[in-house]
Here is the input.
Amino acid sequence: MTEPRSGPYPPATWRLLLDGEADGATNMAVDEAILDAVVEGHGPPTLRFYGWSPPCLSLGRNQPLAEADLEACRAAGVDVIRRPSGGQAVLHRAELTYAVALSQDDPRSEGGVLGGYRRLSEGLLAGLRRLDVDAVQACGARPAEGPPSPICFDRPTDYEICFGGRKLIGSAQWRRRGGVLQHGSLPLRGDLTRIVDLVVLTHRDPATEKRRLAGRVISLEEARGRSVSFDDAARALAQGLAAVLNLELVPGSLTPRERAAVDDLRVRYAASDWTARS
Here is the structure.
């Protein structure tokens, strides 16, 4: 995957993982195992793309479990897990998820959380342009309207990605032990207001919330005007990130050490006590 590159970053080689669908606990375990490998010097900086099966409601690291409607999720066949990163609830279905794991010493992650968001967002925007989607970075969250919402896509924060004033990619970041994990959700298609049926809305009317949310979120299919496959979206985002961040992306797979770590970490992410923490 080569093309002319420019920018202030020194050249770097990252591993590219193109994974299929997995359950929520497995996906979060893989992301953390990759981050641990980067931190410990046993794995390279990594860009990963993946999907979800079954659909999953992921809660932010410190979000109260009470904000998820567990009975409604069970009835809809939707798993509930807790991410290692912060933020609010995301419904993962018919989407492309990206994850980046790298060292905090990498110039691409300088400037703390917001600096890292900005740099990675520039690469994601370049990828979307390859799909003929002229998206932009959000600059500041919308003013709060009413009680806080448990839904991540309710409003964009700094450097998240919007199209036509509506949020297209939501991201969250986790920094620990000198490493950075950023992962984010790009809905490919479908009704993005379905999450309203799966969360607990305090002092909010569900029907009103659905109408409001519909004006604030957008799928890739709606933004582009036609459907985009998982593979095509992943390819475009990978090319955009490689060009902007001066990367050579080398397709690879998890190491035996990472696979063993995934087995251990998945037990934690699947455990009810982890999901219930806040």
